[in-house]
Amino acid sequence: MAGLGIDTSAVSNVAAASNSNTENKNTLDKDAFLKLLVTQMQYQDPMEPTSNTEYMSQMAQFSSVEQMQNLTSTITSGQTMSLTGQYVILNVPDAAGNIDQVSGLVDYVTVQDGKTYFHIGENYYPSDYLDSVVSMDYIEHLADQAKEENVSLEEAFASEAAKSVENE
After folding, report:
1. pTM: predicted TM-score of the whole model, two decimal places
2. pLDDT in tens, 88-129
3. How many whole angstroms separate alpha carbon 63 and alpha carbon 104?
């Protein structure tokens, strides 16, 4: 990809910042499951040991969950890749935790450590921040409306958003 002039080295910085936000989640991953299983085996009652079939059942369940997680990750990554060239709106948290909306065309999508990132303008954003995908036809409609009303595109978009909220 170097021939295209695409530099993905900046993704590492975004990935590090993004990982610090997501590592705080309390989830039971496959490593934690295996640790629980080993602990269960260590502390089982020697007078009534757990049968091999119970362990095999737990390992089969673990394997099924792991495969579902892998499939979900693959599907999500594929869906994210298809957003190249699309206009998206992202909810990006700042250092204080406030949400700022960033929008623009996705130039390309890159993958770093199993996570996908959008390149919009000169920045990379984790695909987790995705809020909306906007049709280019809709953007053109708003641009035409902005010209007619002699307002900016952002004002036309805000006006349309207000109308849709009123109709709900």
Report:
1. 0.57
2. 989 999 889 898 888 889 999 988 887 889 999 899 999 989
3. 40
The SS3 of residue 114 is coil
Residue type (1 letter), 145: Q
Least Cα distance to 114 among 69, 56, 83, 163 occurs for 69
Q: Domain residue spans in the chain?
A: 2-134, 136-167
How far lies 6's CA from each of 87, 93, 119, 122, 133, in Å? Answer: 19, 26, 10, 11, 23
Please spell the DSSP secondary structure of 91-126, one letter per residue. EEE-TTS-EEEEEEE--EEEEETTEEEEEETTEEEE
Encoded tokens for 19: 């990982």
The token pair that represents 37 in the structure block = 């299983």
Taking every pair of C-alpha atoms in the chain, what is the biggest distance, in angstroms?
83
